[in-house]
Specification:
This protein is an alpha+beta fold and 116 residues long. It has 2 helices and 4 strands, in the order H-H-E-E-E-E. The longest helix is centred in the first third of the chain and has 27 residues.
Amino acid sequence: MKLLLYIRRILFGGAFVALGAFSSAAHAGNSRVSARKAIDLAQEQLDLRGLQSTVQIESVVLQSVTILGASRVWTVLWSQPISSDSGKFEVGVEVDMNGKLVRLVKKTAPGAKAAQ
C-alpha cells in the first residue's frame, strides 16, 4: 500500500512539474501583441466606425483563455455599449496574440445608454 502511494506521488508530482514547464514555455512564446498594439487595434475599430468622439476605451486586460494559460487574449472594453442592427450590443473586442480582433457582443445593453 505504501509503495502504491509512493509511486502515485512520484507519477503525479512529475506530471505537474512537466505541465508547469510546458505552461511556462508556452507563456514565453505567446506574447507577440503588446498592450499598446491591442489598444491601437481597438482604437482603429472605433475610428473606422466614426465612434472615436462618443466611445472610448475603458479597460484593457490580458486574460488566459485556456486552463494552462497557454493561450491569451487582450480584452478591451468600451466606455459604453455600441448598438447593432440586430438589436445586440457590442461591449468591446478581444485581440489575440496574432492581432486578430473579435467583437464582444451581448444580447442586452449592460446598464448604460448605447452609442449608435
